Amino acid sequence: MLPDHPAYTHCSLCHEPIVPDRPENFGQVRGNIEGYLDTQFPLWKCPKCQAIHSLQPVDYEEIYAKYPLNKRKLDIFARGTLKNLLNRLQKAGLEKTHRILDYGCGNGVLVEFLRLQGYRNVAGWDPYVPGWQDKPEETFDCVIANDVIEHVDDPRIMMKDALSLVKPGGLLYLGTADSEGVEDMGDLERHIMRLHQPYHRVILTQSGLKKLGEELGLQVAASWQRSYMDRLVPFSNYRFLDEFNRALDHNMNLALEPNAGKIMVKHPILWFWAFFGYFFPSAYEPAFLWKSKK
Ligand SMILES: [Zn+2]
Question: How many Å lie between the centroid of ligand 1 and the Cα of residue 10?
């Protein structure tokens, strides 16, 4: 289970050592992106803090060169879920004049959305996407790092880095996949979407994320357990997305194709999840909004 040169020898969060003689903490799951669909990736779950680690080292340049989510369009589904994300920030006082950074912005879908909503000072940064690779040096009223912390080697270092771009008294929003609910490391196929191998390097729990904020002296302005995608609007919930991907044998490239919706004909149960999936979440996506010290 443990590769010859594992990406981790200790829990990146609580420093618990990875010991091979505890098989119940190890598992494997296939990738859900073309190129990795037939590869099994070894995973380890920290028995102390429950963070799940991807043990096979990766070359980030290589894996992001073919990442289909970086070709995502601002379609009706994206607009709906990003509106939900924006509502969270607006309730905490985000204003249209504020300087905002989308940290790990992918191809800039959220940047584009915020600009269309009238936010004039929005920047994005992503080290692996051409056009977004210039890292800003100034600070921002609000830094958003949505679905980013699970994509890096060291969550603590990434969070400190994101915080260094928040101006004193500003906001840091961080949302992520959740390792809580992944009980049996011997049965990971049903968690394939949240595990998202080999892209998700460390998957935390909500309390693990909370602790990181406390370590950095941050004050919680708001927190959520449910995914920002979860709304009562049909087709806009995590469970539907999970079941939709399952119907496509968890090939995310297929799920992102414009004609992917045709699968609804072959799998009519998907209509049920489209309308009622909100009430049956298959995973949470914890998020925190922190206020930095003045
Ligand atoms: Zn740990």
Answer: 8
Distance from the CA of 195 to the center of ligand 1, in angstroms?
17
Residues within 5 Å of ion ligand 1, judged at the Cβ atom: 11, 13-14, 16, 46, 48-49, 51
Residue 1 has pLDDT above 90, yes or no: no
281 alpha carbon to ligand 1 midpoint, in Å?
25
Distances (CA, A) of 30 to 10, 41, 196, 217: 23, 6, 9, 38
CA–CA separation, 245 and 263 (whole Å)? 10
CA of 9 to the centre of ligand 1 (A): 11
User: Ligand 1 centroid vs 265 CA: distance in angstroms?
Assistant: 43
Q: How far is the CA of 247 from the centre of ligand 1 (A)?
A: 33
- Asked if 291 and 219 count as a contact pair (C-beta separation under 8 A), the reply is yes
Check which CATH number belongs to the domain holding 123 and give it.
3.40.50.150
Q: In angstroms, what is the span from residue 45 Cα to ligand 1's centroid?
A: 8
Give the model confidence (pLDDT) of 18-32 as tens digits.
Answer: 999 999 999 999 999
What is the CA 260 to chain-centroid distance, rounded? 22
Ligand 1 geometric centre to CA of 13 (Å) = 5
Q: Is residue 93 part of a domain?
A: yes
Whether residues 271 and 156 share a domain: the answer is: no
Segments of 63-195 assigned E as strands: 99-103, 121-125, 140-146, 166-175
Q: Which residues form the domain of 79?
A: 68-177+203-228+285-291
Both tokens of residue 4? 């010859």
Q: Residues 165-219: pLDDT tens digits?
A: 999 999 999 999 999 999 999 999 999 999 999 999 999 999 999 999 999 999 9
pLDDT tens, 35-77? 999 999 999 999 999 999 999 999 999 999 999 999 899 988 8
